[in-house]
Design goal:
714 residues; alpha+beta; Beta-Lactamase; Helix Hairpins; 3 domains; nine-stranded mixed beta sheet
Length: 714
């Protein structure tokens, strides 16, 4: 293949590789970007649903707070109107009521005292067309609903005797009551709060629907709860909440709705309020929302899931349980709203994937053609240079040939550069031919000198080895002397340490003996004092004996006097006899104590003698130990002197050993240097031989070229 073709192909391949890399990179970039955009759009859809449903929760929370404030204000107004009218009271007249449980719809008949507000009986007004006292007045002032309850029984069932809450038939809900016990057997929260004397505030079931309410107990003069005053508003009837939920649109066709229990409280556009939410099915005939309802009520928070309508179209749904009202708020977005943007991105990516290879192939073809045209122009002078070089290499090696300097700037520059190169090579080879002869002569002389140097170094190495052996023996002898003197120094030091330690031990012994002596002396003094105390106790015992003898005489006299007194002195005689017996026992006891003290004094005297003997022996031991300590101090001084001398000897021997090792090390260094010098001489000899061969080879190679003899260097 010609140079122009190769150059053009090279440009085409380089361009093609670059374009292909760009196409692949761009394709991968758009593929990843498409996936990222798809994920981002889906995440944005979920985020939008979450944001909308959280906004709905905020709206409900705000409305709940506003409602609670309104309910409190309504209750204040209702209470004020009742108090202004004279308050509630029970009359002596009774009224028969047919009452109905608002939960179970079970009916019964009761007879109750009439409940009046001021002087006005509330009556049994069931028609919404007729005006009912108090409750209609409150509604006209604040809106909402108002009811007056009367307590039915001890259990606390609360009967509506006046109300503007309507039943399903359009009449007032009088005659319905709140049972104290719910159908599930648990106490009703409203009634339990009222019976405790407190006001109930919160969400409560009223007749047939859920309201946000306030119930305040009505009490008689004794403080007993006889009824209740109620105000409340139906939550879903508030237009602001309905409008906020109905107007919240997600995406293009998404919408929001509310489920209470299993019914649509605020239904989506494709259903109606009050319809069964659990009966809405998907394409498999299963409930579309039942699973999500159970999850969100059990786990709380915002739950997001994908459901399918009856046609199998996917829909992204977010749900949140608003516990204060027991609402489950839904935001639903058809997936096609999200995937429409994804489809647009994928369409654009597909178009780009088609056009990128087409553009790449076109660029490669154009690059190959342009490369071929430019290569044909620039290859011509290169081919001329190649032909001339081939003639020089394959012919007679004529370095005197030159190219004609003609053509364009590039051709002239290439020919001039080649001619300069040929001239430079010619001059170098002329110099090399002259120098090779000089090198050949010098290498012969170096080889001869190197051989003589090798012989001298061999003899020197032999002498150094003999010297090294002698120095090594001297070093070993010095090491042995140093080792033995070090052992002697160690033994002398150890003997000194032992003697010094014995001296310290004797010192401690002397001090201990002195302490023992002092202790023995103190013990002797204490025992002597004990003997003195025993003598004092003996004197006291003697006094006690005298007292006992005198007591005995007195008791005897008393017994005689008692005998004279006859029957009157019998009791006194018994006492006198007991006193006499006590005096006898005292005398015997003091005799025993006297004997014990005498024995103790005898033993004390013996102990004093033994203690004095021990004190003398301790003094003698201390004197002998002091003499031994003096002898040991002399031993320590002698051992210290010996240790010093031996240490000096060991130091001198160690210095001699160190000097021997240094001499041995120096001899080893000289030996290694001698060996290295011999090896270097051998290397120089071998190298000079190789250099002579290379000089001869170089002369042969230079002879192949035709050179201008006039430029040969002298």
């Amino acid at each position: 293949m010609r140079l122009a073709q190769r150059f053009g192909l090279l440009i085409g391949l380089a361009t093609g590789f670059s374009v292909l890399s760009l196409v692949v990179f761009t394709g991968l970039l758009f593929y990843n970007l498409t996936g990222s955009i798809t994920s981002a759009i889906e995440e944005d859809g979920q985020s939008s649903l979450t944001a909308v449903i959280e906004t709905m929760g905020t709206v409900c929370s705000t409305q709940d707070e506003l409602l609670r404030v309104k309910i409190n204000n309504d209750l204040n107004v209702a209470r004020d109107r009742m108090v202004s009218a004279g308050g509630a009271s029970l009359s002596d007249q009774t009224e028969t009521w047919d009452i109905v449980n608002q939960f179970t719809k079970a009916g019964s008949t009761v007879e109750l005292p009439r409940l009046s507000v001021g002087d006005t009986w509330l009556g049994k007004i069931s028609s919404l067309e007729a005006s009912a006292p108090l409750v209609d007045e409150v509604k006209a002032l604040v809106g909402g609903t108002c009811t007056v309850f009367q307590r039915v029984n001890e259990a606390g069932d609360m009967l509506r005797v006046a109300t503007n809450v309507a039943k399903l038939d359009g009449t007032r809900a009088i005659g319905t009551y709140i049972p104290a016990t719910n159908p599930d057997g648990k106490p009703n929260g409203v009634v339990a709060t009222l019976l405790s004397g407190e006001t109930f505030r919160g969400r409560a079931y009223v007749v047939n629907d859920w309201y946000l309410t306030a119930y305040e107990p009505i009490k008689d003069a004794t403080g007993e709860v006889v009824g209740a005053l109620y105000v409340g508003d139906k939550i879903e009837s508030i237009n602001s909440i309905r409008n906020a939920i109905a107007s919240s649109v997600v995406g293009r066709t998404g919408e929001s709705f509310v489920v209470l229990g299993d019914k649509f409280l605020i239904a989506p556009s494709w259903s109606s309020d009050g319809s069964d939410a659990a009966s809405v099915l998907d394409d498999r005939g299963e409930s579309r929302y039942q699973g999500l309802l159970e999850t969100v009520r059990g786990e709380g928070g915002v739950q997001i899931a994908k459901v399918y309508d009856e046609q199998g179209s996917p829909r992204l749904v977010a749900a949140m349980h608003y516990e204060p009202w027991d609402w489950v708020i839904f935001c639903e977005l058809p997936e096609q709203d999200i995937m429409g943007a994804v489809a647009s991105v994928e369409s654009a990516a597909s178009g780009l994937a088609f056009w990128l290879p087409v553009i790449g192939v076109s660029v490669v073809v154009i690059a190959v053609l342009i490369g071929y045209l430019f290569a044909a122009r620039f290859a011509r002078p290169v081919q001329q240079v190649a032909a001339t070089l081939a003639e020089i290499a394959e012919g007679e090696g004529d370095l005197t040939r030159r190219l004609p300097v003609v053509g364009g700037p590039e051709e002239r520059a290439l020919a001039g550069a080649f001619n300069n190169f040929a001239s430079t090579v010619h001059d170098i080879l002329v110099e090399v031919r002259g120098l090779s002869a000089t090198v050949a002569g010098g290498t012969a002389e170096i080889s001869s000198t190197s051989k003589q140097l090798v012989d001298d170094m061999t003899e020197q190495s032999r002498l150094i080895e003999s010297t090294s052996a002698a120095v090594e023996e001297l070093s070993q002898s010095a090491d042995s002397v140093a080792e033995r003197t070090e052992q002697a120094a160690s033994l002398a030091t150890e003997a000194g340490d032992v003697a010094h330690g014995s001296g310290e031990t004797l010192g401690k012994t002397i001090r201990n003996l002195e302490t023992i002596r002092d202790s023995v002396t103190a013990a002797a003094d204490a025992v002597g004092l004990l003997g003195q105390r025993g003598a004092q106790i003996g004197e006291i015992i003697q006094v006690i004996n005298d007292i006992a003898d005198q007591t005995n005489l007195l008791a005897l006299n008393a017994a005689i006097e008692a005998a004279r007194a006859g029957e009157h002195g019998r009791g006194f005689a018994v006492v006198a006899d007991e006193v006499r017996k006590l005096a006898d026992r005292t005398t015997k006891a003091t005799s025993q104590i006297t004997e014990s003290i005498e024995g103790m004094q005898s033993e004390t005297d013996t102990s004093v003698e033994k203690i004095n003997l021990g004190s003398e022996q301790a003094n003698e031991g201390a004197r002998e130990a002091d003499q031994a300590r003096g002898s040991l101090e002399k031993i320590v001084e002698s051992a210290s002197s010996v240790g010093t001398l031996v240490t000096d000897i060991a130091a001198a021997a160690s210095e001699q050993s160190q000097a021997s090792r240094e001499i041995s090390s120096s001899v080893e260094t000289i030996s290694r240097t001698s060996v290295q010098a011999r090896e270097f001489s051998e290397t120089v000899s071998n190298t000079s031989g190789h250099l002579a061969q290379n000089a001869e080879t170089l002369s042969t190679l230079v002879a192949r070229f035709k050179l201008d003899e006039r430029k040969r260097s002298g």
